[in-house]
Design a protein that fits this description.
The complex is a heterotrimer.
Chain A lengths: L1 H25 L3 H10 L1 H11 L4 H24 L4 H22 L8 H6 L9 E4 L2 E5 H29 L1 H6 L4 H42 L3 H26 L3 H19 L5 H14 L1
Antiparallel strand pairs in A: 1-2
Helix pairs in contact in A: 1-7, 1-9, 1-10, 2-4, 2-5, 2-9, 3-4, 3-5, 4-5, 4-9, 7-9, 9-10, 9-11, 10-11
Chain B lengths: L2 H5 L3 E10 L2 E11 L4 E5 L6 H8 L7 E5 L5 H4 L3 E4 L13 H7 L2 H4 L7 H13 L15 H13 L5 E5 L7 H16 L3 E5 L6 H4 L2 E6 L1 E7 H4 L2 H8 L3 E6 L2 E6 L1
Parallel strand pairs in B: 3-7, 3-8, 5-6, 6-7
Antiparallel strand pairs in B: 1-2, 1-4, 8-9, 10-11
Chain C lengths: L1 H9 L1 H26 L5 H20 L4 H25 L4 H25 L10 H4 L7 H20 L1 H9 L1 H6 L4 H23 L4 H13 L5 H22 L8 H19 L5 H27 L6
Helix pairs in contact in C: 2-7, 2-10, 2-11, 2-12, 3-4, 3-5, 3-10, 3-11, 4-5, 4-10, 7-10, 10-11, 11-12, 11-13, 12-13
Classes of the chains: A mainly alpha, B alpha/beta, C mainly alpha.
């Protein structure tokens, strides 16, 4: 049963991140995802301090707001003329520093281990349960992630075409009368929500890894957005399950193993992809050389 | 120019000024487009042609000036405007095919929730056929040539079924076949009573392809029918010293920059 | 306040750490200016995360904690990571931001697996490897500080000696190649210097925050000048100020970590520059924009007046 909850948590993180990741890498915002997942830390820390508990709703709201603040600050710096990568770097390191400082200064009030900020402690997920009216409702993380995934599926189900055109051609989207900024912040809000609800269980690094690696793997394998999303989720889930099994065998960090497996799957795709893979390219080059 | 025609003209711009940071890029531009004509917007590099188009469509903010489209604000008349951006403005590695890109042109008409269905697909397919791209409908867009990509963009604007089309350098870097296809399409649009504003670079083809010209170099130098406005004097004023006019066998050949 | 400063200086260990952090800030600020101008700011972040497996392997091979070995491990891992990033960007349609993200998380994930494996296997508890994640300058011993200072001096000297070449490859690599500069070698030299800066910085401010030492002072310096030597000087000054304040403030209390304080001081300097720098700062920009707007508002009024009086605009 313990294993079940841990694997379920990992699968929920992987699914939520893999869907969002496709849109992040297509919009060239992979590193904004990285920034958000670090920058929600002060939100989580402040929510801890204010509510004094691990009350999920507080944390989800407070920290998601910080994610959006990150996006807003990055954008403000960019429009003021600073290069985008420098804007990202300045904003997320500053916010992460605030988070670490709050946690270190209030170590006795905040039940949050700094190490778990980066790696999370997915192994503790089954013990941290949510009780409603005296009934044990199962692990809290599973509930938070479940709600997040439901929100993602609902929004993409309703507004798939808007998210797609905003990613492909934002100027065209504006000209069509689609509120591009709204969908931008919706996407960023979902990334923040995912980062927050995954934070304690899997840590910042796994969130970033799951946002970028499965989506990039799928990007190499297909020419259709719908298929890309499906493949990305599949890569994410396979990494989650296999990564968990390997971590068990190696007695090592579950989050680290999951990201490593995703990375290895990416390398496979890189080498073996039918059209874009290195082998296919080499073969094509060789045959082209023979023709000449 | 009489009052009624100005009022419901496809596009009227009044006192438009656009500035980036320190400098004005477009300064106090006012004009009215006549209905049912092909209009070229020409001027040297950095004259603010693309910027002006983008400001008209609300894609970049302007410091001052008003835009009216068919006598109303752009916001209300959005569905009557079809925009063809520069080809470089999108990522052609995006996982999608030609047909899908063309269907995006219908998104504005579909409303918030509705997804493109069979009707949209048929329309998109017919339009691709019209631009000679039906065979490439399922081709991933990065595998199309520059000219083919441009035709896909045109098809996407056509399915919008707009009345005013705004095109940013549709002829840039396309092959001869595509250029011919675009011209055929433009005259078809004109036949149907549509108005087309095109940012154009090749001065030698202006009098052949277009009815009207707008000459822009930060300020609007002149606007009017090709035969009265597209004159060496006004072109000199627009391009400054960067223009050479080579005249041989009675035909004008103009070399910009 | 003064007592506190005096007490900082009188304790030899604190004095060394203070000096070390200051020099580190100075060196990173100078090298960071070049990476900033080359629009490679986030390379530092990638290098820092990628260093973890290198550090772990260095530990596993020797079973001892040694700052110089860790530095070597981080250097090799960082170079491997950068090679991976450029390979992915060159060979696939994946853009550079995503390839950095992939390499960063993959290396860090592998590093995490190694780290937890070491920690769970007994000898790891004394390894001090976990210090690498968040950095704690106060925990540095004298030999660590010597290495830190040596590295920083190396960075500064290299930046001064190769100033003209670095300037050219940051501004226009194509032209640099055209006039016969060995651009490839220079780019690799700069990369190695950046990696060294990151690897040295990790111990003081930690994996996640070390990128800020490269980016934030350089970005702040950019607001004050349009001239590269002046920018380097400002960046070095801001970096040194941040490093010294970070080390000094963290001596105030038991739980105050050096890294976050350093980064926040740097961010404060950045915000001040962003708002108040003459010429490029926010306030002077707003002022200029308002002037421009009012000029055109007047001219628009005039032309509207003309139109109302029956004059037709051309």
């Amino acid at each position: 049963m313990m294993d079940f909850w841990i694997i379920l948590t990992a699968i929920l993180v992987a699914s939520a991140c893999s869907i969002l990741g496709c849109f992040l890498i297509l919009r060239r915002m992979a590193l904004v995802g990285d920034a958000i997942s670090h920058a929600v830390l002060p939100g989580i820390a402040i929510a801890f301090l204010m509510s004094g508990t691990r009350d999920s709703m507080w944390m989800l709201l407070g920290a998601t707001a910080f994610g959006l603040l990150t996006v807003f600050l990055i954008q403000t710096l960019q429009t003021s003329g600073l290069q985008s990568d420098a804007s990202i770097g300045i904003v997320f390191t500053a916010l992460f520093a605030v988070g670490v400082l709050i946690i270190s200064l209030n170590a006795q009030h905040i039940d949050l281990d700094l190490d778990c900020v980066l790696f999370g402690e997915i192994a503790y997920v089954p013990w941290d349960t949510w009780t409603l009216g005296g009934n044990n409702m199962g692990p809290r993380a599973v509930w938070m992630l479940g709600i997040t995934l439901a929100v993602i599926l609902l929004l993409f189900g309703l507004f798939y075409k808007q998210f797609k055109i905003c990613a492909f051609d934002p100027a065209m989207a504006v000209a069509c009368g689609i509120p591009v900024l709204l969908f931008h912040y919706l996407l960023m809000g979902m990334v923040s929500m995912t980062a927050v609800s995954s934070f304690e269980s899997v840590g910042a690094i796994l969130v970033v890894g799951m946002l970028i690696i499965p989506a990039a793997t799928a990007y190499l394998l297909t020419h259709r957005l719908g298929i890309m999303i499906g493949l990305s989720v599949a890569v994410g889930i396979v990494s989650a399950v296999v990564g968990y099994l390997i971590s068990y065998a190696l007695d090592a960090s579950i989050a680290g193993c999951i990201v490593s497996v995703a990375g290895i799957l990416f390398i496979f795709a890189l080498v073996l992809a039918p059209k874009n893979g290195l082998i296919a390219r080499l073969a094509r080059r060789r045959s082209a050389a023979q023709v000449v | 120019m009489n009052q009624t025609s100005t009022k419901n003209a496809p596009l009227t711009v009044n006192g438009m000024t656009i500035a980036y940071q320190r400098k004005a890029v477009v300064e106090d531009v006012s004009f009215t487009l006549p209905e049912g004509k092909l209009i070229a917007l020409i001027g040297p590099n950095g004259a603010g042609k693309s910027t002006l188009l983008k400001a008209i469509l609300g894609l970049v903010p302007s410091i001052s000036g008003e835009v009216s489209i068919y006598g109303d604000t752009y916001k209300k008349m959005r569905s009557r405007v079809g925009y063809v951006p520069q080809r470089e403005s999108v990522d052609w590695d995006f996982p999608t095919d030609a047909l899908d890109v063309v269907m995006m042109g219908r998104y504005g008409h579909l409303g918030w929730i509705k997804r493109p269905g069979r009707k949209e697909k048929e329309l998109a397919m017919n339009t691709l056929d019209k631009v000679g791209m039906a065979d490439f409908a399922r081709r991933q867009i990065s595998q199309l040539s520059g000219g083919q990509q441009q035709r896909v963009f045109l098809a996407r604007a056509l399915v919008q079924e707009a009345d005013l089309y705004v095109m940013d350098e549709p002829f840039a870097g396309v092959d001869a076949a595509t250029e011919k296809a675009i011209i055929a399409l433009l005259s078809e649009l004109k036949q149907a009573g549509k108005t087309v504003l095109v940012v154009h670079h090749d001065l030698s083809t202006v009098d052949e392809y277009f009815d009207h010209v707008l000459l822009l170099n930060k300020k609007l130098i002149a606007a009017g029918p090709v035969n009265t406005t597209f004159t060496p004097e006004l072109l000199h004023e627009t391009y400054g010293g960067k223009l050479a006019i080579v005249s041989s066998d009675g035909k004008k050949a103009l070399v910009g920059e | 306040m003064l007592d506190w400063l005096i007490s900082l200086w009188s304790d030899p260990n604190t004095r060394w750490i203070l000096l070390g952090c200051m020099l580190l800030g100075l060196g990173s600020g100078v090298i960071g200016s070049f990476t900033f101008l080359r629009r490679e700011s986030l390379l530092g972040d990638t290098l820092a995360h990628a260093a973890l497996p290198g550090v772990c392997i260095a530990f596993m091979l020797n079973e001892v904690k040694s700052a110089s070995l860790f530095l070597l491990g981080a250097l090799f891992a960082g170079i491997a990571a950068v090679l991976c990033v450029s390979a992915i960007t060159r060979w696939t349609k994946i853009k550079s931001d995503a390839s950095m993200g992939i390499v960063l998380t993959f290396f860090f994930g592998v590093g995490t697996v190694m780290l937890t494996h070491i920690q769970h296997s007994g000898s790891g508890s004394q390894s001090g490897l976990d210090k690498y994640l968040f950095g704690q300058a106060a925990a540095m011993v004298t030999s660590d500080v010597y290495i830190l200072m040596g590295v920083s001096v190396l960075l500064i000297v290299a930046a001064i000696l190769l100033f003209k070449e670095f300037k050219l490859i940051s501004f226009d690599p194509g032209f640099a190649r055209g006039i016969g500069l060995p651009v490839g070698i220079l780019e690799h030299t700069m990369l190695i210097l950046t990696t060294v800066a990151v690897a040295a910085g990790i111990q003081a401010v930690g994996v996640v925050l070390v990128a800020a030492l490269l980016i934030t002072p350089a970005a702040a310096a950019r607001y004050w000048t349009d001239r590269l030597p002046v920018m380097l000087a400002f960046a070095g000054l801001f970096g040194a100020l941040s490093g010294a304040s970070g080390a000094a403030i963290s001596t105030l209390g038991e739980g105050i970590p050096t890294g976050p304080v350093t980064v926040l001081v740097a961010t404060l300097l950045f915000v001040l520059s962003l708002l108040f720098a003459p010429g490029r700062g926010w306030f002077s920009k707003i002022l200029r924009h308002r002037n421009l707007k009012s000029t055109y508002a007047q001219s628009a009024e005039r032309s509207a007046l003309n139109a109302a009086e029956g004059g037709t605009p051309k």
